[in-house]
Design goal:
The complex is a heterodimer. By secondary structure, chain A is an alpha/beta fold. Helix content of chain A is about 30%, strand content about 25%. Chain A has one domain: HUPs (Rossmann fold). By secondary structure, chain B is an alpha/beta fold. Chain B has two domains: about 180 residues, Rossmann fold, CATH 3.40.50; about 120 residues, 3-Layer(aba) Sandwich (Rossmann fold). In chain B, helix 2 crosses helix 3 and helix 4 runs parallel beside helix 7. Classes of the chains: A alpha/beta, B alpha/beta. At the A-B interface, strand 2, helix 1, helix 4, helix 5 and strand 7 of A face helix 3, strand 6, strand 8, strand 9 and strand 13 of B.
C-alpha cells in the first residue's frame, strides 16, 4: 500500500509576529517559524502506524514548506520525502494551492492508495485545503479522521462526526483530513534516523502556477487585540473554602442552581 | 452604494427547530443584506419534510426568500458529503439562477468550512474560509478573518463572481428572529436520493454531557488541569450548572477530552452567557473560540495568566483545592433547589 502524507507546518505561535504586517513579511514569517502542527504530526503518526502493522507499506511525504520541516519529516525514516515549493503561491487562496499541489503530485511515480493530511494543512488555520485537494485529485475526502487501520476487508477509518464517532470502510483511494487525538501523537524519531536524514536531499516538486493575478489577495492586516470586556477582573481572595463559596455564588448566578 | 445582481445565499443544514443554532448566522447575513442595496437574500434550509423548521429571520430582514429544501431521507446529522450533494442541487437548480455575483455563506465549524470549500470547487468559485466579517465592494468580496493562530486579522479580497465562506460575527447580539411572511417561504423538493450507507458504523459514545453548541454555561479546562481526574471534577461542576464541558487543544492532544469538545481557533466557537475557564492560560488561539459577549470567570494558579485580563471574576489557586469544594457547594445548592 502506498501512503502519501502531506505536511505544511504552521507558524510557531511562540515567535513574535514581524513588526511590519504585510503579505511579504507574513509569508516570510510563516516560512521562517514553521513547525509541524498537531494535525501534521497526527497525519505522520497514522502513516507510521500503518507501516508498523504492515512493513510493505510505502510512505511518501510531500512537505509544502522549507527544508527544515522536510528534514523533520525525514527524521521518521519515511521511504521518500519531496518538497513542494509553494513560495510563489502565497497562502491566501486555498483553491489555487490545492490545484497547484494536485498537479505537482501527479509527478510522483507512485499513485497513492491513501492520502493523509492534517486537517488545517496548507491554509490559514481552517480546513479548506484538504477537501479542495480531494476534489482536485478526484478522491473522496473523510474529515476529522482520528485513526486508520487495515484488516482483511480493507482500510477502516475512525472519525469524529458531530458529537459521535464512527467507523467507515474506505472503498478505494481516499484523502483523510486528520485531527488530533491522544492515540495519534507523533513518536520521537530515533537518533540514527535523525543522523541519516541529515545527509538527505529532498527532490523538489514544482508548482505549476500560471503567471498573473492570484484569485485571492491580501488586503489590510492588523494585529488582533481581544475586545475589551466589562471592567477589570474582580479577584476572589481568601482561603480555598472562602474562594469556593464565593465562586459558587458567582457561577450559580448564571443560570445554574440558585 | 448599489451593487446590481448580487445574490446572497445562506445554506443551513437541517437542525430541529428548538436548537436555533443558526439564528446568529441569519442575523449577521441580514445585516450584510441590508448594507448592500439591490442585493437579494435567499436562505436555504435543508429538512426531511416541510413543517419541521420555522422560517424565521430578524424583523429588519426585509425581502428575504426562505427556501425549505426537502429531502425525505435526510437525517439530522448527515455527513458533509451528503450535505454537499443536497446543497449543490439546491444551488444549481433552484436558487442561484442567473445572478451575476453570488455570495454563499455557511455556519462556522468544521463541517461548514468543508462544505464551503467543496461547493466553491464545484461552482468554480473561491472560498474565503472562516470569516468574521464580509464586505461587498462593487467588484470584489472582502472577508475579514483571523490568521496566524488568531494573532492577526486579515482582509482577503477576491474578484471571483462566486464566493463562499463561513461566517461567525464576533461579539454581536442577535435580534430575536420573527416568523417570515408566508409569501416569502418556498419549497424545493430535492431529487437527490440518499442511499443507506452500509460502510459506516456509529460507535457507542461514552460522552453523555450536553453539547457545546447552544450551551448557556460552558466549563472549560486547559493544560493546567493536568489530567483526566481534573476533568472529572470539571464535569461535576458543569453538570451542577446544567452546562457543557470543553477543553483547549492540548487537553485534546493529551486525550483528556474528545476533539468534539475542543474550543478555540481549531475547535468549536462557543457563545455561552458564562465561560468558566480552569487551568486555561488564555492564549489568543483559545479565546478565538469564545464569543466576545461571553462573561469569563477564571481559575488559574498563575496570577499572571493572560486569562485574568479578559475575565470578569478570577480566582488564583490550585484547582485541586478549589474544584472539590466548589462542586460540593454547587451540588448542595442544586439539592436545595
Amino acid at each position: 500500500m502506498n501512503v502519501l502524507v502531506l505536511v505544511s507546518g504552521t507558524a510557531d505561535p511562540k515567535w513574535p509576529l514581524p513588526p511590519r504586517l504585510d503579505a511579504e513579511a507574513l509569508e516570510a514569517h510563516a516560512r521562517r517559524c514553521a513547525v509541524l502542527s498537531p494535525f501534521d504530526e497526527a497525519a505522520l503518526e497514522l502513516a507510521l502506524k500503518l507501516r508498523d502493522a504492515d512493513l510493505s507499506v510505502h510512505i511518501t511525504a510531500v512537505v509544502a514548506a522549507d527544508e527544515g520541516l522536510a528534514r523533520q519529516a525525514a527524521n521518521l525514516r519515511l521511504d521518500a520525502v519531496y518538497r513542494f515549493d509553494e513560495r510563489r503561491l502565497g497562502p491566501w487562496s486555498a483553491r489555487a494551492f490545492a490545484m497547484a499541489l494536485a498537479a505537482a503530485l501527479g509527478q510522483l511515480d507512485r499513485s497513492a492508495d491513501l492520502v493523509l493530511a492534517g486537517r488545517e494543512f496548507g491554509d490559514l488555520d481552517d480546513g479548506s485545503v484538504p477537501p479542495l485537494l480531494a476534489r482536485a485529485m478526484g478522491l473522496p475526502c473523510v474529515s476529522l479522521a482520528l485513526s486508520v487501520a487495515a484488516d482483511a476487508d480493507g482500510l477502516w477509518v475512525t472519525r469524529q462526526r458531530g458529537p459521535f464517532m464512527e467507523r467507515q470502510r474506505l472503498a478505494g483511494p481516499t484523502l483523510l483530513a486528520v485531527t488530533n487525538d491522544t492515540h495519534n501523537r507523533l513518536r520521537h524519531p530515533l537518533l540514527k534516523n535523525v543522523m541519516a536524514a541529515r545527509k538527505l536531499r529532498f527532490a523538489p516538486l514544482a508548482a505549476a502556477i500560471a503567471d498573473g493575478e492570484q484569485p485571492i489577495s491580501l488586503g489590510a492586516v492588523q494585529a488582533y487585540t481581544p475586545a475589551p470586556r466589562e471592567g477589570a477582573c474582580r479577584m476572589l481572595t481568601g482561603a480555598p473554602a472562602e474562594q469556593a463559596e464565593a465562586l459558587a455564588q458567582v457561577l450559580a448566578g448564571f443560570g445554574g442552581p440558585q | 452604494m448599489k451593487i446590481d445582481a448580487l445574490r446572497i445565499v445562506v445554506l443551513l443544514p437541517f437542525e430541529p427547530a428548538e436548537k436555533r443554532d443558526h439564528n446568529a448566522l441569519v442575523a449577521s447575513v441580514c445585516e450584510l443584506h441590508a448594507a448592500v442595496p439591490g442585493s437579494a437574500l435567499h436562505i436555504v434550509q435543508l429538512a426531511p419534510a416541510t413543517g419541521l423548521v420555522e422560517a424565521r429571520a430578524p424583523a429588519s430582514c426585509d425581502g428575504a426568500i426562505w427556501w425549505n429544501a426537502v429531502c425525505p431521507s435526510l437525517a439530522a446529522d448527515a455527513p458533509a458529503g451528503t450535505l454537499a450533494r443536497l446543497f449543490r442541487e439546491a444551488l444549481a437548480a433552484q436558487v442561484t439562477g442567473d445572478a451575476q455575483r453570488r455570495l454563499v455563506l455557511l455556519p462556522r465549524g468544521a463541517a461548514g468550512e468543508e462544505l464551503a470549500a467543496t461547493l466553491a470547487w464545484d461552482f468554480n468559485g473561491e472560498s474565503l474560509g472562516r470569516c468574521q466579517r464580509i464586505r461587498v465592494e462593487p467588484e470584489s468580496f472582502v472577508g475579514q478573518r483571523a490568521a496566524f493562530g488568531g494573532r492577526v486579522l486579515i482582509d482577503l479580497r477576491t474578484q471571483a463572481r462566486c464566493c463562499f465562506a463561513t461566517l461567525q460575527q464576533q461579539g454581536s447580539v442577535s435580534p430575536v428572529p420573527q416568523p417570515l411572511p408566508q409569501a416569502s417561504v418556498r419549497t424545493i423538493e430535492l431529487l437527490t436520493r440518499l442511499e443507506p450507507d452500509h460502510d459506516t458504523q456509529r460507535l457507542e459514545s461514552r460522552d453523555a454531557m450536553p453539547r457545546l453548541e447552544g450551551a448557556s454555561v460552558v466549563v472549560g479546562g486547559g493544560r493546567g488541569v493536568q489530567g483526566v481526574e481534573g476533568f472529572e471534577w470539571l464535569a461535576r461542576v458543569a453538570a451542577s450548572l446544567d452546562g457543557a464541558l470543553g477543553g483547549s487543544l492540548p487537553t485534546v492532544d493529551a486525550g483528556w477530552i474528545p476533539v468534539s469538545r475542543q474550543i478555540g481557533q481549531s475547535g468549536k466557537f462557543v457563545a455561552p452567557r458564562l465561560y468558566f475557564a480552569v487551568g486555561i492560560s488564555g492564549t489568543l488561539q483559545h479565546l478565538a473560540g469564545v464569543s466576545a459577549d461571553t462573561t469569563i470567570v477564571a481559575l488559574n494558579s498563575d496570577p499572571e495568566a493572560p486569562i485574568f485580563s479578559v475575565a470578569k471574576v478570577g480566582v488564583v489557586g490550585d484547582w485541586r483545592d478549589i474544584l472539590p469544594l466548589l462542586a460540593e457547594r454547587l451540588e448542595e445548592r442544586r439539592r436545595r433547589g
